[in-house]
Design brief:
This protein is 41% helix and 8% strand. With 80 residues, the chain is mainly alpha-helical. It has a domain of 48 residues. The protein has a two-stranded antiparallel sheet. A hairpin with a 4-residue loop joins β1 and β2. The longest helix has 10 residues. It is elongated, with a radius of gyration of 18 Å. It starts with 6 loop residues before the first helix and ends with a helix. 11% of the residues are buried.
Length: 80
């Protein structure tokens, strides 16, 4: 397992888009380093986990979204 992740790998690890990681780095909301001054951004998994914990939003107990049965067209059902 790699110690250092680039932005794309960090975003995949966190399950978010790359822009969100870039914004968090720019806003100094997530710990990161820049290799070569302002060049490549590198993150550690622990730093991403800490950021996710700090920004987690607890929701009320809502029922899970309905899942479509295999082979059904959800859009067609919604449109009718």
């Amino acid at each position: 397992m790699k110690l250092w992740l680039n932005v794309a790998e960090g975003a995949e690890y966190a399950g978010v888009c790359r822009d969100l990681i870039y914004d968090a780095c720019a806003g100094r909301r997530i710990h990161h380093i820049r290799v070569g001054g302002r060049r490549a951004i590198r993150l550690k998994r622990e730093w991403i986990d800490e950021w996710l914990e700090r920004h987690a939003v607890v929701t009320q107990d809502a029922p899970p979204p309905a899942r479509a049965a295999a082979g059904t067209n959800v859009r067609a059902e919604v449109a009718s």
